[in-house]
């Protein structure tokens, strides 16, 4: 019987305060494309913003719930602590200069022989850039970023677990990642995909994480399709991880569960993707709503703050 394995990260979803500031940073500074502007299906008065590569492929998409009234969170156990993005080999100097241009403080770090450029977004999310040959080129030019320097997608993530051994067990025995290293307080796992494929578990003690602005809400793993997702759900039930029912998120179907270290995991299907309700050339331009909320479009457009993707002053 073939062992089920995820290719890696599907998307990562985080909490922030200000929608326009969020767009200015991830689209304006980092050059990601706003691939979908929709609402939080569970709280329609809050945007759900998706950023990714030119087509919003799985493994490239970071999403946000920007809600002005939420309290500041605290990064700690039970959360994704650091989000890594892959940049092309030879582009790190470009990114150092770019971060300096926008007055973003950064530092260098090393794990498993790789150099990481680390910084935070305006809400305090911890990010890092890593040069790797893996992953397809992101053929997108925007602002001051040309395709040869553009972020390709996720490199991976650092998980801060309340019980690292239990998180490791899920990565290895449920999701099918391979443990490839143990070094300086981190356990490293690798999946078979070429994006979002390196997961480090932090082994040293940490404070308890508190959900709020500047923290990751959940990390999602890739499933090939709905049939694959049903198999994952059945496996999770057999292993007593108590997954949710399959939920339709318009752009993918998903199940959610908490692993033993307290982190909220999701498994999401690759299809149908972000062109299911608008052409790829137009994705991210207008507010897209699920069918059951379309009758409230006018009301929601009045309630939600006005936002836009814009080239920042430093790039003009």
From TrEMBL:
The protein, known as: Ring-cleaving dioxygenase
One Gene Ontology MF term: dioxygenase activity
Segments forming domain VOC: 8-132, 153-270
Record's keyword terms, sorted: Dioxygenase, Oxidoreductase
Database matches in SUPFAM superfamilies: Glyoxalase/Bleomycin resistance protein/Dihydroxybiphenyl dioxygenase
Keyword Oxidoreductase appears in the UniProt entry: yes
Superkingdom field: Bacteria
UniProt cross-references to InterPro entries, sorted A to Z: Extradiol_RC_dioxygenase (IPR052537), Glyas_Bleomycin-R_OHBP_Dase (IPR029068), Glyas_Fos-R_dOase_dom (IPR004360), VOC_core (IPR037523)
